[in-house]
């Protein structure tokens, strides 16, 4: 199966603003938008806070759906940017939940969808109260990088590979 998709944005952050900050103020590491990034098998995106985080980490690269972002904007009346969810890749053209347990390629990079990127409580403060509950079941997609390559902003194809083991 192949689907036409649009990679609308790719971002990285060199440090964690919320992980390890429970009960403390968030960090101030900025989101850095990229036109392209190098994805390394088993490690993630070069330069991102989760690059090489731990062996076989299930969230080496995280995806978020533009349609869900638009629903949040409508529901909460905020003007926030999609990078405030702190996911790496903003996509349109595919339901991310259908990729859980699947291997798929975007360009030369092969990913495995591991699980929903469940929303965290900090979204209520970073975006708007109630966003965490609103995003349950549509918080994004956690993936592992199976084959290295360059991921770029722009139109492309998502090709479903054989089912993940």
What brief labels describe this structure?
165 residues, mainly beta, 3-stranded antiparallel sheet, globular
3D structure, described in words:
- With 165 residues, the protein is mostly beta strands.
- Helices cover 12% and strands 39% of the residues.
- The protein has three helices and eleven strands; from the N terminus they run E-E-E-E-E-H-E-E-E-H-H-E-E-E.
- The strands form two sheets. It has a seven-stranded mixed β-barrel with strand order 1-6-5-9-8-7-11. A three-stranded antiparallel beta sheet has the order 4-3-10, with no helix packed on it.
- The longest helix is centred in the middle third of the chain and has 11 residues, at 66-76.
- The two termini are 18 Å apart.
What class would the helix/strand composition place it in? mainly beta
What percent of residues are in strands?
35-45%
Count of helical regions: 3
Strand order of the largest sheet: 1-6-5-9-8-7-11
Rg over alpha carbons: 15 Å
Shape: globular
End-to-end CA span? 18 Å
The average pLDDT score comes to 88
The helix-strand sequence is EEEEEHEEEHHEEE
DSSP strand tally: 11
What can be said about the biggest beta sheet? 7 strands, mixed, barrel
Low-confidence stretches: none
Fraction in helix: 10-25%
Please outline what is shown here.
The chain is mainly beta.
How would the blueprint of this fold be written?
Elements: E1 2-12, E2 32-34, E3 36-40, E4 44-45, E5 61-65, H1 66-76, E6 89-92, E7 102-106, E8 109-116, H2 123-126, H3 131-134, E9 141-147, E10 149-152, E11 154-163
Parallel strand pairs: 5-6
Antiparallel strand pairs: 1-2, 1-6, 1-11, 3-4, 3-10, 5-9, 7-8, 7-11, 8-9
């Amino acid at each position: 199966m192949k689907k036409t998709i649009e990679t609308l944005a790719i971002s990285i952050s060199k440090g964690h603003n919320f992980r390890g900050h429970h009960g403390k103020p968030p960090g101030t590491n900025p989101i850095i938008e990229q036109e392209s990034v190098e994805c390394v098998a088993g490690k993630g995106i070069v330069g991102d806070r989760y690059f090489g985080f731990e062996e076989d980490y299930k969230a080496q690269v995280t995806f978020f759906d533009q349609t869900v972002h638009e629903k949040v904007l409508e529901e909460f009346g905020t003007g926030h940017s999609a990078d405030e969810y702190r996911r790496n890749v903003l996509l349109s053209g595919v339901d991310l939940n259908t990729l859980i347990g699947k291997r798929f390629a975007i360009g030369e990079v092969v990913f495995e969808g591991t699980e929903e990127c469940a929303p965290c409580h900090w979204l209520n403060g970073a975006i708007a109260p109630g966003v965490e509950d609103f995003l349950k079941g549509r918080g994004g997609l956690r993936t592992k990088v199976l084959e290295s390559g360059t991921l770029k902003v722009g139109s492309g194809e998502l090709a479903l590979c054989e089912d993940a083991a």
